[in-house]
Design brief:
- With 207 residues, this protein is mainly α.
- The chain is built from ten helices and no strands.
- Helix 3 crosses helix 7 and helix 4 crosses helix 6.
- It is globular, with a radius of gyration of 17 Å.
- 34% of the residues are buried.
């Protein structure tokens, strides 16, 4: 059993619910395996849950954080601006139809919406989820460069100049934050590398 299958099972143990039918898990994997994706794939989920399993004790509702992680990029289209909203709706629908226990659909939806990264996350669970989602920024340089190529592939319909300008704006916004990560664990382990990676990528985009 791989890390994602194990995490999927444990998620519902934490929520206090039986697992949904296998078709739900199969559908979720199909979303993350869509051919237009390069970064927001099962690779990304694997990396996220690698961090989650090391930091789950930081969450108040670990089952909700795990469920939100699974669905935070379930809907992904670079032409759309409402991916998080659609992903949150899908998660809420799955919870409402199949899941019983202690999970709260509104709480899960709010966690997914926090991955828009349009402000500092509020609350323990949101901070943990967002830091996990941003862990790629502090990855080893080779993985970060691969990530940047993957993001570019997803926006291959954008011309080079517009992409450089837009991507630089996004990366500078993270670099200009007083702290990229909200939790001490992620700041201690990833903040310095993330700042190096971001500065390097911004310089490359400007070259």
């Amino acid at each position: 059993m791989n890390i994602l299958e194990t995490a999927w099972q444990r998620c519902f143990d934490d929520i206090g619910s039986s697992r949904p039918p296998p078709c739900v898990w199969e559908e979720l994997q199909a979303h993350y395996s869509e051919p237009h994706r390069a970064y927001h794939t099962l690779q990304h989920l694997n990396e996220c849950f690698g961090w989650f399993e090391k930091t789950r004790q930081l969450g108040e509702h670990p089952g909700d954080v795990a469920f939100a992680l699974f669905y935070h990029d379930a809907i992904y289209d670079t032409h759309a601006s409402d991916n998080e909203w659609q992903s949150a709706n899908l998660a809420s629908d799955v919870l409402g139809e199949y899941v019983r226990g202690d999970s709260d659909a509104n709480r899960v939806a709010a966690l997914i919406m926090a991955t828009m990264h349009d402000g500092v996350a509020k609350g323990q669970d949101a901070q943990l989820l967002v830091d996990i989602d941003l862990s790629i920024l502090g990855a080893a340089p080779a993985r970060f460069e691969e990530y940047e190529r993957q993001i570019r592939f997803g926006y291959n319909w954008v011309d080079a100049r517009a992409y450089r300008e837009g991507r630089s704006h996004i990366l500078k916004a993270f670099l200009e934050r007083p702290a990229i990560y909200s939790t001490a664990v992620f700041r201690d382990q990833l903040e310095s590398q993330a700042r190096f990676n971001l500065a390097h990528s911004i310089a490359a985009l400007a070259a």
